[in-house]
UniProtKB/TrEMBL annotation:
<dbReference type="GO" id="GO:0022857">
    <property type="term" value="F:transmembrane transporter activity"/>
</dbReference>
<dbReference type="GO" id="GO:0016887">
    <property type="term" value="F:ATP hydrolysis activity"/>
</dbReference>
<dbReference type="InterPro" id="IPR017871">
    <property type="entry name" value="ABC_transporter-like_CS"/>
</dbReference>
<dbReference type="InterPro" id="IPR050093">
    <property type="entry name" value="ABC_SmlMolc_Importer"/>
</dbReference>
<dbReference type="InterPro" id="IPR003593">
    <property type="entry name" value="AAA+_ATPase"/>
</dbReference>
<dbReference type="InterPro" id="IPR008995">
    <property type="entry name" value="Mo/tungstate-bd_C_term_dom"/>
</dbReference>
<dbReference type="Pfam" id="PF00005">
    <property type="entry name" value="ABC_tran"/>
</dbReference>
<keyword id="KW-0547">Nucleotide-binding</keyword>
<keyword id="KW-0067">ATP-binding</keyword>
<dbReference type="GO" id="GO:0005524">
    <property type="term" value="F:ATP binding"/>
</dbReference>
<protein>
    <submittedName>
        <fullName>ABC transporter ATP-binding protein</fullName>
    </submittedName>
</protein>
<dbReference type="Pfam" id="PF08402">
    <property type="entry name" value="TOBE_2"/>
</dbReference>
<feature type="domain" description="ABC transporter">
    <location>
        <begin position="23"/>
        <end position="253"/>
    </location>
</feature>
<dbReference type="GO" id="GO:0043190">
    <property type="term" value="C:ATP-binding cassette (ABC) transporter complex"/>
</dbReference>
<dbReference type="InterPro" id="IPR027417">
    <property type="entry name" value="P-loop_NTPase"/>
</dbReference>
<keyword id="KW-0813">Transport</keyword>
<dbReference type="InterPro" id="IPR003439">
    <property type="entry name" value="ABC_transporter-like_ATP-bd"/>
</dbReference>
Length: 369
């Protein structure tokens, strides 16, 4: 029952068919020395959901995760885990799984003992414990390294052990803060696949922190985009990417170009018409007056369209990126614009070249400025 956005993946419906809420967060506020870093966070994470907190440095992601974990107190608001108020519980009482970038393994213990640690703390009997450790090491592909010490492992292998350790006792909720941040790109992609597979297999509810859009896109059922202590958007990756709710999300999440325009009522229809320079096209929006058009680099193509935005510009630079070419141009009446065009596309895209690019109206989101 996996969908494109993966929303249904691994979730456990309640008898009435709705997905039950694992973590319920309402109106969480937090200030440090008069600076408000969380400004009223509302969030319901569903059973089995993989939810990512995505945002620039300082937007409050780690603070929110630490408050959920119990390492940090909140000033006001409420938090319930599977219906129970956890606000006053210590981190140990909350019993959550955690994988942090800096959350090191115990160096003096073997890999197997690291994975067994949480099970011993919970007094699992030894036969059950051994079977579980074996199963978890199997799951992360490291059964042959059970007797090694952490220093004898690569960074990626250490993160796999950390994941196995956090998941071993089937926590109600797994919190992960930039767990792949220290890994190189290839290893990160490999670990993303691994995380997706493990999540599908176990159906654990996960809250994941990252500032990397691609990582968030690859992993998440839903993404909460954080901006200065608030959610600027909370939706499936596809919805946020294709229909960003604000200019901040458009820029941060899909690297969209933001192009000033004017929207007015279309005398010929119920809808609106958007004007940029001498280009006019119908648009799906209730906004009128000054607006901002969000146009993703990939939506701009070297062709003309009947309904949409057409821009003429001079190429400033052109960068080959594998199958794509990233072209930056200065467009007449619009300003700087970035387009991402197939490298196989014939045509002149070298600096100084004059080009015409268009985006179809259905690929353009009209936003309040
Ligand atoms: N213990 C603290 N004392 C004072 N200020 C803090 C403390 N912890 C965090 N802050 C401030 O709160 C704000 C949010 O920090 P937080 O670490 O939650 O952001 P973040 O989105 O996780 O950033 P990053 O991606 O850089 O980790 C920042 O301005 C930070 O300086």
């Amino acid at each position: 029952m996996t969908t494109v956005a993966g929303v249904e993946r691994g979730t456990q419906p309640t008898p009435d068919g709705a997905r039950s809420v694992a973590l319920h967060v309402r109106s969480i506020r937090k200030s440090f020395a008069n600076q408000e870093v969380l400004r009223g966070i509302d969030l319901d994470v569903h059973e089995g959901e993989f939810l990512t907190l995505l945002g620039p440095s300082g937007s409050g992601k780690t603070t929110l995760l630490r408050i959920i974990a119990g390492f940090e107190s909140h000033d006001s608001g409420e938090m319930r885990l599977q219906g129970n108020d956890i606000s006053r519980l210590s981190p140990a009482q909350r019993d959550l799984g955690m994988v942090f970038q800096q959350y090191a393994l115990f160096p003096h213990m073997t890999v197997a003992d690291n994975v067994a640690y949480g099970l011993k703390m919970r007094r699992w009997d030894s036969a059950k414990l051994r079977a579980r450790v074996e199963q978890m090491l199997e799951m992360v592909g490291l059964p042959h390294l059970a007797d090694r010490k952490p220093r004898q492992l690569s960074g990626g292998q250490q993160q796999r052990v950390a994941l196995a350790r956090a998941l071993a006792y089937e926590p109600k909720l797994l919190l992960m803060d930039e767990p792949l941040g220290a890994l190189d790109k290839n290893l990160r992609l490999q670990m993303e696949e691994e995380l997706r597979r493990v999540h599908r297999q176990l159906g654990t509810t996960v809250i994941y922190v990252t500032h990397d859009q691609e990582e968030a896109l690859a992993l998440s059922d839903r993404i909460a985009v954080m901006q200065e202590g608030r959610f600027a958007g909370l939706d499936t990756p596809t919805a946020l990417y294709q229909r960003p709710p604000s200019t901040f999300v458009a820029r941060f999440f899909s690297n969209a170009n933001l192009i000033p325009a004017t929207a007015s009522s279309d005398p010929g229809s119920e809808g609106a018409v958007v004007e940029v320079g001498d280009c006019r096209f119908p648009a799906a929006t209730d906004l009128r007056g000054d607006v901002m058009l969000a146009v993703r680099p990939r939506s701009l193509r070297p062709e003309t369209v009947a309904d949409g935005l057409t821009i003429h510009g001079t190429v400033i630079d052109s960068l080959l990126m594998g199958d794509d070419r990233q072209v930056r141009l200065e467009a007449a009446g619009v300003g700087p614009v970035v387009a991402r065009i197939s490298a196989a596309q014939p045509g002149e895209f070298e600096p100084g070249a004059t080009v015409t690019l268009s985006a179809a109206s259905h690929d353009i989101t009209v936003l309040a400025p």
